[in-house]
Amino acid sequence: MKKIILFFVAVGITGSIMAGGLVTNTNHSAAFTRMQCRDATLGVDAAYFNPAGLTKLSTGFHFSISNQTISQTRLIETNFPLLSTYPNPKTYEGNVFAPIFPAVYGVLNLGKVAVSAGFNPIGGGGGATFEEGVPQIEYNPSLLVPALVDAGVTGYELEASFEATSVYFGYQLNVTYKINDMLSVAVGGRYVTAKNTYNGYLRNVNLNFGGTMTPVAGVFTSLSDNFTAIAGTGPTLQPIIEGGGGGFTLQQVLDAGLIDASTKAQLEAGLAVIGVSDPSLLTMIQIQGTFDAAAPTMLTQAAEMDAKSTLYGALMNQEAIVTQTASGFAPIFSVNFSPIEMLNIAVKYEGRTKLEFTNDTESDFITEVDATGTPTASMFPDGYKYNADIPAQLVVGAMLTPTGKVMISGGIHYFFDKAVDYSSGMDIEMIDKNFVSYALGVEYGLSDALKVSVGYGGTSTGVNELYQSDIRHSLNTSSFAAGFGLSITPMIEINVGGSYTMYTDESYEYSKAVSPILTIPYTENYDRSVWLVGVGVDLHF
């Protein structure tokens, strides 16, 4: 039953909203939005991208503020044949929307030394809504149909919804030192505060039972009542036998007026449950003996149905309202090297941010109950702690300005994902290789005041099939961007850009046991897309 609500383990939501890394955002300025690469920048946003390059700014105070509006669509498709959807496969759509995704930087450059501070959503940054849930929530209810088909169950319906928000705010501080005109270094750190919220429900799970949509618990209660009635049928036939009808068949006692047609049909149905396919030749004494012999088994099955009624009543009508919080720190080291005037090279290393989340649970999803229906385990126990670290990363970037009008910027990010346990302590190897992202941007000056740019960014994920699921998956991406920068005055610069990210869809083969002797294979396909618009202003004093 735990798998019924596994979709609420929102690791996929608490990761990056953009294609930076598994859990790390790298889109942290409007200038990045229009170029896709700022790893060797000497602008104000170097407070995040290249702290060691900040002494290249003019002396004085510099300030940058920008916002990005982000919309992400997530598509999950499954061809699991038991889902009550036509045509098959079924597609589940989730939407992530972040209207406010800010980046704020301040730099004080004194010449030899620069001090900078920054604020941005280093992870997460949006809210996700799956209005119809995800495949994981439907699989187990759909399995009840073939399991109960002999009892007259032919279909199911349910209501499910899932909303989650996640944001990791990063507060960064750096100190930069200029060794000489070619070389500068910086040291700093980022304090991260993280918060995840989950609000969802699974309710009104009904089965088509004899043509009527009936709550799952009600179906098992009805079956229990039927088994109990069958167990007690033997003694109810004694008056007919004592009245001289012991040697008669069911049709004969009907013709004699000892029972009516409804009673005959009920007796035949009860015998069918026991396993008697043709009761027409049995006498009433034989029928009574059959019911009496089956009574212990029927009472046992009735008790089992009562237990399932309690179990499903608890597990298929519930709500989760949870907040998770954590905080951690990462050291940051960077080097900026300018061997010639037209070339700037930057290297940055960010250490691992250790995050231990704690559950603050208002209401929880029950995963196990005892025989009385009392919860014995839940999905988000109040006060439970778990680790979900942000991996370390190494960034190398270069910026080339071959002419006064052209600037070319390239960079690569290498994320040390293999050092992080993404299996929540289950000791499962889910990462085959570390995540890599790369980007190239070109800017052209139409005039001294106006610059236009285009950019491309790509990622190569290193997860294996054990990491991938409908609730969490990592896909390779390609991002395309364009925009412009405008100098209103020497003190004021505006950046405007937009980008679109395409994810390479992936399909994975799974199987699910329907019975001890039957396993059904099926395929899930995952896909996403993201559009983004960024606007920012840089001020120089």
Written description of the protein model:
With 541 residues, the chain is α+β, with helices and mostly antiparallel strands. It has helices spanning 30-35, 46-49, 135-147, 216-231, 233-236, 238-245, 250-255, 261-274, 284-315, and strands spanning 60-78, 90-109, 113-130, 153-178, 183-209, 212-215, 318-340, 343-350, 356-363, 366-369, 375-378, 385-387, 393-400, 406-415, 436-445, 450-460, 477-489, 492-503, 506-515, 518-540. A 14-stranded antiparallel barrel has the order 1-2-3-4-5-7-8-13-14-15-16-17-18-20. A hairpin with a 4-residue loop joins strand 15 (436-445) and strand 16 (450-460). The longest helix is centred in the middle third of the chain and has 32 residues, at 284-315. It is elongated.
Task: Please outline what is shown here.
With 541 residues, this protein is α+β, with helices and mostly antiparallel strands. The protein has helices at residues 30-35, 46-49, 135-147, 216-231, 233-236, 238-245, 250-255, 261-274, 284-315, and strands spanning 60-78, 90-109, 113-130, 153-178, 183-209, 212-215, 318-340, 343-350, 356-363, 366-369, 375-378, 385-387, 393-400, 406-415, 436-445, 450-460, 477-489, 492-503, 506-515, 518-540.
List the helices and strands and how they pair.
Elements (H helix, E strand, L loop, with lengths): L29 H6 L10 H4 L10 E19 L11 E20 L3 E18 L4 H13 L5 E26 L4 E27 L2 E4 H16 L1 H4 L1 H8 L4 H6 L5 H14 L9 H32 L2 E23 L2 E8 L5 E8 L2 E4 L5 E4 L6 E3 L5 E8 L5 E10 L20 E10 L4 E11 L16 E13 L2 E12 L2 E10 L2 E23 L1
Antiparallel strand pairs: 1-2, 1-20, 2-3, 3-4, 4-5, 5-6, 5-7, 7-8, 7-9, 8-13, 9-12, 10-11, 13-14, 14-15, 15-16, 16-17, 17-18, 18-20, 19-20
Helix pairs in contact: 4-9
